[in-house]
Amino acid sequence: MTDLLFARSQMAMSLAFHIIFAVVGVGMPALMVIAEWRWLTSRDPLHLELAKRWAKGTAILFAVGAVSGTVLSFELGLLWPTFMEHAGAVIGMPFSLEGFAFFTEAIFLGIYLYGWKRISPRAHLAAGVVVAVSGALSGAFVVCANAWMNAPTGFRIVNDVVTDVDPVAAMFNAAAPSQIVHMTLASFAATGFAVAGIHAFALRRGTPHRAFHRAALQIALWVGLPAALVQPLAGDWSARSVAERQPMKLAAMEGHLKTGPAAFVIGGWPNLETLEHTGAIEIPGGLSFLLHGDSKAIVKGVDAFPPDERPPLAIVHLAFQIMIACGSVMAALSLWGGWRSWRRRRGHGVALPDDRRFLTAVVLAGPLGFIALEAGWTVTEVGRQPWIVQGIMRTADAVTPMPGLVVSFAVFTALYIGLAVAVVFLLWRQILKTGVSQTPLGLTSELPIPTPGSTASYPTP
Amino acid sequence: MAAAATELAWTLPHAVAGTMVLSLNAYVLLGGADFGGGVWDLFARGKDRDAQRMLIADAIGPIWEANHVWLILVVVLLFSCFPKAFAHLATELHIPITVMLVGIVLRGSAFTFRTYDSKRDHVQRRWGRIFSVASLLTPVILGVCLGAVASGAVPIRSIESLRTVTFGERFIDPWARSPFPWAVGLLTLVLFAFLAASYLTVEATDDRMRTLFRRRAQQSQVVLLVLAMATLMIARAENPLLFQGLTQGRTALTMHAITAIAAATSLWALATRRFQVARLAAAAQASFILWGWAWTQYPWMLPPDRTITELAAPRITLEITLGMLAVGTMILLPSFVYLFRVFKTREGVE
């Protein structure tokens, strides 16, 4: 492997790792705020307990997100100095705004986590709302910067020098709106489904705390299902945006190999020599219809681009298919859930948390949101290759001259594997061992929310 | 018109650079003290070592994440407003920055894991060990990077000289060859530990803790003074130009004088148990050390030959960034005041 490949692998790994925690940082605050709000309106201690549990999970995951995000901001320079040298002044604006949003999020998360007894319940809830809103905003700002790499604008290049810089135009680039909507929905869908999956698992297995898990499942579904339901529309919007600005990426992800009327390709492995698929199901004219409303419309295929401007086709197509498959299952589950609860309102059937088949489906769908998320980012990033800035700068020209990048790749891989194991281990200990299934509710001493001055936060030998 | 444009071409980059030093100053006073707390966690000894660690954890817990963002702000300002400097430093100092990042990741995550781990056993103690060792390592490397830049060891090279330079000369020598960056690294570490001890005298809830951290503050102040002298000596032997910058000119000397007064005030206030005064004096001392460094390398951003103005991004980027800083400050400042009022005043305690 070359240094370039190690740099790309390190960046991919760092992003794939960070994105999980970033998404949880957007989704979890919404869950905990809804739980706390329900506590304030109903005074049901169950909801307070739930808000505190979720806050604790948020704290652990947010911390890892904060430090892995710091790594990324440095890695932009450690791995891609030439990119930052030219792009820094153009796309610095959304990064600065993200900095402020993140600042606000960190301040109010501190207040939320440690301030249960120090401020009024209303002020506490308000702090949670600020965390949720600034979390969503900081995600949107970072996506703006990524969208600029797909639809670069707001500058001119004269003799290899970047001039006429317009940071505002760069930030509000054409790819930004669809990417922001798609990603924000993904955050809520992925977090909602994952949390719903955990509580559905407990309900399905049988637990003495049914009321607790029912309440949790309900809130998680309220966040996850609507987001998953509208996500296909946002995805369609994103695909049209890609078709317009990055026809090569579109051809790669859809597996559209030959220019002409485009079929919708499901599955299959693209063969670069023959420009044919092996083992694919094709819906003739499907892609042309989705993009242009006309099944005969001509769509540029992979063959329209010189080989040195094509991304790795198989990876991009496969990742895209995985995302679509996960998203479709989640949307279908949302429809089912919606239909069931509509019937329940009219007096038919049982409530969702009592339906074992529905619970099984929710448990199985739990990880799908995060799988779709990782697959989707693979499409975005690998699909843009060989460019780091679409049509402007190649990734190979942006990489650091530092040799031996295998070392830093190995260091960060080991670090992130260690962190991932630690986080899973910790949440496991929290949720499964001392929490959910064994402790009677109301015994908050078993679930220490550390407050300054408490002994709960530190071990005694 | 032309004169006004030239003036702006000077003012804007300097306003951003000044803001960066201010942010770094906030990071040193707030984030630095959090690292210092980790150092005292590592050195917690005796029967009440768990009480010491608890006091430190309670002091850091609610605020360390917000404090950490100051560093991110510095990095973001550097790459959007001085992209060439950022690209250059990230390339040449790749190795120490990577080590520092590993330290930052381990410090933050291990601290959180320890706080939220639900069992009190050896696993939790292991998080504590990782947290405190990372708190020790990270400030040293941060100081090494700043020291390497200040001593002019990380110059922007010409394309011709890049062809002949070896791996060692380019990527290792700038921070590893001379003892000066390491002296600055140690100085940073002891400064952070000193800040933490000074703050903890105020935050301690009982007299025993207060006395303990008072002694720690006094000891680290003495070590700090010795290290500062040693750093100056090394600068004189290694790098006469830097030494000249550190010791000549009215402004440099004034800053040293103020630093010395702050140090003396801190020692006096600690001796007479005026802890609020000692905390202020410690913060002033740290700030003036930092501004002293900034002034020493002024007007160079990358000594020995690149100025702040030369490395600045286009004017429009600087203007927008400064505008956003102004608006952002209006949101952030009240938020910070609220955070510290909730957690750092006695009234709030139930």
Record keyword descriptors for this entry.
heterodimer; A: 461 residues; mainly alpha; two-stranded antiparallel ribbon; 8 strands; B: 350 residues; two-stranded antiparallel sheet; 2 strands; 1% strand
For the sheet with most strands of chain A, the description reads: 2 strands, antiparallel
Distance between the termini of chain B: 61 Å
Structural class of chain B: mainly alpha
Q: Any idea what the radius of gyration of chain B is?
A: 21 Å
Q: How many β-strand runs of chain B?
A: 2
Most residues in contact: chain pair: A-B, 83 and 79 residues
Spatial arrangement of strands, main beta sheet of chain B: 1-2
Number of helices, where a helix is a run of at least 4 consecutive DSSP H or I residues of chain B: 15
Helix content of chain B: over 70%
Structural class of chain A: mainly alpha
Helix percent band of chain A: 55-70%
Shape of chain A, please? Answer: globular
β-strand number of chain A: 8
Mean pLDDT score of chain B: 87
Strand content of chain B: under 5%
| Secondary-structure element order of chain A, N to C | HHHHEEHHHHEEEHEHHHEEHH
Radius of gyration of chain A over all CA atoms, rounded: 24 Å
Largest sheet of chain B: 2 strands, antiparallel
Model regions low in confidence, pLDDT < 50 over at least 5 residues of chain A? 433-461
**What strand line-up does the widest sheet of chain A have?**
1-2
